[in-house]
Write a structure and sequence with these properties.
Elements (H helix, E strand, L loop, with lengths): L10 E3 L10 H7 L3 E2 L5 E2 L3 E2 L5 E4 L1 H15 L17
Antiparallel strand pairs: 1-5, 2-3, 4-5
């Protein structure tokens, strides 16, 4: 059985949950980068081509998570669940 391709995440404009910024100008004044466990400083915002903050939709995250679950259920990250009566590859 051939595994389905990795689904793409769908991004939409969204305010950052931490600081509320909706674009790069607001992020410059509202966002305070936080230090991670490695000591690096980072702002987790992702920006689209028009400098708006974007985030993946809940629906596209659910599809992506389901795709990951199919691979993890095999244990080797390669095979896919086959319909009843079909062999997996």
């Amino acid at each position: 059985m051939i595994c389905p391709p990795q689904p793409a995440l769908v991004f939409v404009p969204a305010a950052r949950p931490r600081c509320g910024a909706r674009n790069t100008d607001e992020a410059d004044s509202l966002c305070e980068p936080q230090q991670d466990s490695s000591g690096e400083w980072d702002c987790p915002a992702r920006f689209g081509p028009d400098n708006q903050v974007i985030a993946p939709t809940a629906e596209s995250l659910a599809v992506f998570d389901a795709w990951i679950d199919v691979h993890q259920s095999c244990g080797d990250g390669v095979c896919c669940a086959a319909p009843a009566g079909e062999a997996t590859s």
